[in-house]
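Subject: Sanity check before I submit

Could someone independently write out the structure tokens for this chain? I want to compare against mine line by line before I put it in a report. The sequence has 78 residues.
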Amino acid sequence: MHPPLFREHPDCEQVIQDLVSCHEQNPIAKFLGTCNDAKAALDLCFRKEKNSKRKANMVEANRREEKMNELLYGKNGG
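---
Independent answer below. Compare away.
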């Protein structure tokens, strides 16, 4: 199962189009595994996208935590 394809996925647009195209060209055969390679590529792309978002969120969370600690305890932590 993959996230909704109608949301923005800038890094995966071409892979999404490949899967949608495969599904359109193979309305019955898609259920028999014809589009499995396109689906696997999409899953890999989404995994990379999720990891990059996770890293960016962690950087932002650390920045906010440092700022909060400065406000609470001062610059030297004391």
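---
OP: Matches mine. For the report I'm noting this point. The two ends are 49 Å apart (CA to CA).
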